[in-house]
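Write out the 3D structure for:
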Amino acid sequence: MTGRELIAMRTAKFFEDGNLVNLGIGMPTMCLDFLPAGVDVWVQSENGVIGLDRKPQEGEYADPDVVDASGQTSLMRTGGCCFDSFASFGYIRGGHVDITVLGAYEVDGAGNLANWMVPGKAVAGMGGAMDLVVGARKVIIMTEHCDKKGNPKILKNCTLPLTAVGAVDYIVSELCVLRRTDAGLVLEELAPGVSVEDVIAKTGAELIVPAEIGCMV
């Protein structure tokens, strides 16, 4: 199992049967491949749909007008529906989304999130992330623990422009699961073969380490 698959598998364990979930672009969509037995969720996308399903396989018919938040063609499940962006953001801002799962450039010990802009690079904008992390009942960040240069992505304080302040509930990486509390980030679970020292060495924020720590699998 790859690191990203481990992240997706553990994140999917947060889902409960019947949840309305919003899955961000990229790695979060992998969660649907790892739903626990007996758990069925409805996927909402800010572009105006509830009931997104998997990506079509080669040769499989798909309506080109049905796309996910990244603009990629997607299938819809029976009972799914489409609506305008006004209604979609009404669901989000009204607190009707149970869980939103997003990626991150940076997260810090206070639960602040930066995931929409990298200085010096052209970006399309923040999309629906700012609304999602404030409106959803639970916010989960899926991220590799360090960037491609080996620098920690979980910091004492974010350095990039913030998407939201104090909104993150959980961080899931290939090394561990962290829970954000008022006192700081609690190390709740470790990946197989990973030690507390490994996590501390690759984390820029201070961690609260309890006496007992669970396993991600």
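The mean pLDDT is 94.
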